[in-house]
Amino acid sequence: MEAILATFGPLLLMVLIFYFLLIRPQQKKQKQVREMQSSLQKGDKIVTIGGFHGTVHAIDEDVIVLLATDGAKVTYDRSAIARVVQS
Q: Where are the transmembrane segments (predicted)?
């Protein structure tokens, strides 16, 4: 019994460390991003994953129309929104 514990103990410890240091924080961040993307509203100022800054003009199921500062309308997938800018 001790040989099994001595063999698999370090492996189990490594799995737990990976879970709490890598996997769990990544899952929490993904959940926050999904919640932010689902709570977008018309008029929110956002930044896309490509660095485009704009204002939400219209929202569809999976598509968002952004209004640029020069009045141009650009269509993006909802998943391309990186963050909401507070200004």
A: 6-23
Does one domain contain both 60 and 33?
Answer: no
Q: 48, 80 in Cβ contact below 8 A?
A: yes
Q: How many domains does the chain have?
A: 2
Can you tell me the distance from the alpha carbon of 32 to that of 35, in angstroms, rounded to the nearest whole number?
5
| pLDDT tens-place string over residues 24-77 | 999 999 999 999 999 999 999 999 999 999 999 999 989 999 999 899 999 999
Residue 58: both structure tokens together: 């219209």
Pick the closest to residue 46 from 23, 8, 74 (CA basis).
74
Query: 59 with 33, same domain?
Result: no
Partnered with residue 83 across adjacent β-strands are 47
